[in-house]
Amino acid sequence: MADPIHVTASVRIPADAIRFKAVRAGGAGGQNVNKVSSKVELRIDLTAIEGLPEDALIRLRVAQRNRLDAEGLWMITSDRTRNQLKNLDDAREKAVEAIREALVRPITRRATKPTKGSKERRLDSKKRASEVKRRRSGPLE
């Protein structure tokens, strides 16, 4: 059974919401790849995360939508190293980082009007471009 993951003081992933599985990794490594299951698959039940606000849960689901399996579990993989425990720590760190990013509320953009100077600069550049194009089409002889 995996240990609970503490994200912040108020947000944590309980141990019963985490499933851990070791699988064989691909890539470089020679015969070691074919024998040792060092790649880690961590599956987390998003609905079981304690202390996660509803808006942050929605942001997390949207950000990780391609990593959700058929059961709705969030799948995080790590095969960075040849060591299973280091890969497990890496996968847990990836989960913490993603949840911390989801906790940050995006700043809503307020519509503003263009300044007088920006309008004038835009019109000047349009006039210059128009003049250049007009000069290109000289008299045909």
Strand tally, please? Answer: 5
Query: What is the chain-wise order of helices and strands?
Result: EEEHEHEHH
What's the helical proportion of residues?
Answer: 25-40%
Oligomer: single chain
Q: What's the alpha carbon Rg, rounded to whole Å?
A: 26 Å
Q: Structural class, judged by helices and strands?
A: alpha+beta
Average pLDDT over all residues: 90
- Helical element count? 4
Report low-confidence residues grouped into runs of 5 or more.
none
What are the salient characteristics of this protein?
alpha+beta; three-stranded antiparallel β-sheet
General description of the model:
By secondary structure, the chain is an alpha+beta fold. It has 4 helices and 5 strands, in the order βββαβαβαα. Strands 3-4-5 form a 3-stranded antiparallel sheet, covered by helices on one side. β1 and β2 form a beta hairpin. The longest helix has 21 residues. It is elongated. The mean pLDDT is 90.
